[in-house]
Amino acid sequence: MSTMDRIVVAGASLGGLRTAEQLRRAKFAGEIVVVGDEPHMPYNRPPLSKEVLAGKAGFDSVAFRPKAAAGDVVWRLGSAVASADLAGRTLTLADGESLSYDGLVVATGLRPRRLDVPGPVGGRHTVRTLDDARALQGALRPGARVVVVGAGFIGCEVAATARGLGAEVTVVEPTPLPLVRALGEVLARALLERHRAQGVRFALGRTVSRFTGTDERVTGLVLDDESRVRADVVVEAVGSLPNVEWLEGNGLDLSDGLLCDEQLRAVGAPGGVVGVGDVARFPNARYDAVARRVEHWSVPGDSAKHAARTLVGAEQEAFAPLPSFWSDQYEYRVQSFGAPGLGAGDVRVLEGDPAGDVLVGYHDGGGRLVGVVALGGAAVVARAAAYRGELSSISAGSAGSAGSAGSSDFSVMQGALS
Amino acid sequence: MKVVVDMDVCQDHGQCVFASPEVFRLSDEGRLLYVAEPDESLREDVEDAADVCPLQAITIED
């Protein structure tokens, strides 16, 4: 690795920034070039569905402040990477420029999945980038009829923000409860009640068959039971797709993001290629050998630190971050530590009551706690944090039957709940 | 090393507490407390704490 003169980081969001900074911390003294498709310097995405969407935060308040040690990083913004020749250690950018490298960081993140149904396109939004959020913000007027398709975290946060702005909000979701895949039934029901109390309407167990409207603009949706919902604005929050097409033709496993090993090295690539952030599919040695993509905010930072050390050839243990995520909706926070999805079969209320502040525990087949999720105010969130030590003690080789569940999701039976 | 947390921005996520427990902690009510001038030897931990803050509310002033 001593011949490494230039490392190119593909992706200029949180993962790209943190990798550049961590390379400097790991004493890499060569050139670092960060390539990004957006015109903006790296910024924080969680506020996009909340403060930015509510018009309360501009770019300055969400922009990251790069560390001084990374002050000499070269930023090539506004141009995506179009293709890669890993054997030749060369990238081609969308603007035609060719860029050679000695080390490559794959941190190209995700883009929103779009609904593939007939009908007009105008008036249909997603929330992934700053520009997305600004475009949607202008449409969220008091009284506007907003239909959110998808009741995951983004969909639920957008619904809450839109209600706060006085919009009429309907959420369409194919599963029987919002967020049930991520949180299980107890908290999903508790969140559904909170949203309903705020006046959000739900069409659960329903999918979108088509959009209706003029040539240019959507004015409504037809659902799979032929029911109709009027809409001035549609927000599609139906998941994400990893940005990996530029890596095709190099013999990599790109079936769901970039497959990486326990040191975040790209599997099947020549040396010096690592994956960072939510585009990377990696095993977490804390739990099992199953490689998964993880769309938590903590992943870019954690994986950047590990991948930077891998690139400079530092000795280190297998990557084993403690998962953690949160979501703010109305005055409530959802705060998770550990891997609730690995404990989906044994869910218990540990403290409080689902009608108020509540802390829920998720246990593996052996009855061991593998994840906790709090819902409520600061005190119960702090109680969740108190379990973090116990959850951290699950380490490589001690995971027992946690991995044998083979799933990081709660199984959801269509129509089984109502 | 001087640490500044913008308490108007902080939302008590507590991620800093795990990164740098010598400098940051949460009260029983879940509110953030921190040491404003920690020892220089803790710099890497405090940098990690600043990194993991979801609100990016932590600044290190040299």
UniProtKB/TrEMBL annotation, chain B:
Q: Which cofactor does it need?
A: [3Fe-4S] cluster
Domain of life here? Bacteria
Q: Which GO terms describe its molecular function?
A: 3 iron, 4 sulfur cluster binding; electron transfer activity; iron ion binding
**UniProtKB keywords:** 3Fe-4S, Electron transport, Iron, Iron-sulfur, Metal-binding, Transport
Pfam families (alphabetical): Fer4_13
Q: Which InterPro entries match?
A: 3Fe4S_ferredoxin, Fe-S_cluster_ET
Protein task: Ferredoxins are iron-sulfur proteins that transfer electrons in a wide variety of metabolic reactions.
Q: What is this protein called?
A: Ferredoxin
